[in-house]
Amino acid sequence: MLAPYACDPAHSRGRRHPEPEAPTRNAFQRDRDRIVHSTAFRRLVYKTQVFLNHEGDLFRTRLTHSLEVAQLGRSIARVLGLHEDLVEAIALAHDLGHTPFGHAGQDALHECMREDGGFEHNLQSLRVIDELEERYPGFDGLNLSFETREGVLKHCSRANAERLGEVGRRFLEGTRPSLEAQLCNLADEIAYNAHDIDDGVRSGLLRFEQLEEVPLVARYRHAVLREHPDLPVKRVLAEAIRRMLSDQVYDVIDATRAALEAHRPRDVDEVRRLPVLLRFSPTMRAQSDELKRFLRANLYRHPQVVETTERGKRVVRELFAAYDHDPREMPADHWQDGRKGRRAIADYIAGMTDRYAIREHERLTGVRLF
User: Which residue of 38, 137, 235, 285 has the fewest CB atoms within a 10 Å radius of its CB?
Assistant: First the structure.
């Protein structure tokens, strides 16, 4: 049953371009379906999460990460009476604007675009669904509902917010997005913390014993080993992560229920005027932050990861320089519209998969980096 503070597709703020309602789907289901059928969504399967796609078939990609966020989000939304279809749509779309080579690619592209407004993957995700997808005869983009677009735009500078209209207004007024959007933001964090532990140990860059340094993980590891002392490491890790995920989900549910009880929002508009309500308890928040610090120090800054991501940055920088020197190296539809300038180059590179960027770089420079 939908709670009064949840988003209701029957009362959506609508789409940028008016369309007749679908006869068999609500507005958020329609958004979700458009995202799943988009070109940008399909490309996520070959975009880096932490490990480049060619480094192993079992590591997470942006696509599997997005699916895990959607699964966690729907599980929590169902209990809290939020709109599951909206949560799923936001979760599946939140990384559509991500560059090849993960955050390293974003950093390199931001450097290249510094004098032209910079680059930020979150804002690029909105750009993808508002402008860059080309599927419909009557408009550019996917023409998603305001509520989905609001959830995709997790953060935004004041300068960018001023030109985004209604969807950017909350960054100027200091208000919050819907609970469904807040939930996706937290589900994103829960998902990547958990699967980066798994991928880190699987890769050999993290030692199983290192997890003793992280109380949030260590207590589940100890519990599993007490109950199953002869269990192989791979299964101990999987079970410890499963228990950690479950407890984080229950913690979010309990902490959010307490916040909702304290503030008693009557509708989604009142939610927007209140503090963030979809939250961890203070204890779990501190433990999750500690886990993030551990992963940053021991996985994301691991010499092997840094060495690989530096090569990814070089690919992005040199691709940008090559296209900037001769835009005709890009497909015609990316350079013929002169009004976009260097933003067209950023759009083209951001849309690349890891493997396509590597091939293009080798074609243009004659250098093989991977």
Answer: 137
At 197-226, the pLDDT tens digits run: 998 998 899 998 999 999 999 999 999 999
Q: Which two tokens stand for residue 348?
A: 């083209």
From the list 277, 280, 282, the residue with the least C-alpha distance to 261 is: 277
Residues 6+ apart with CB under 8 A from 179: 5, 6, 7, 80, 82, 256, 268, 271, 277, 278
Q: Which of 315, 250, 255 is nearest to 281 (CA)?
A: 255
2 in Cβ contact with 81 (< 8 Å): yes
The CB density around residue 241, as the number of other CB atoms within 10 Å, is 21
In single-letter form, the type of residue at position 114 comes to: R
CB atoms closer than 10 angstroms to residue 157: 13
Give the Cα separation of 278 and 112 in Å (integer): 36
Catalogue the E-assigned strands of 214-332: none
Quick count: other Cβ atoms within 10 Å of Cβ 333? Answer: 10
Amino acid in position 53: N
Of the candidates 145, 165, 168, the residue with the CA atom closest to the CA atom of residue 155? 168
How many angstroms separate the Cα of 79 from the Cα of each of 1, 191, 212, 223? 9, 18, 32, 27
Q: pTM surpassing 0.85?
A: yes
Per-residue DSSP letter, 108: H
Q: Are the C-beta atoms of 336 and 327 separated by less than 8 Å?
A: no
Is 145 in a helix, a strand, or coil?
Answer: strand
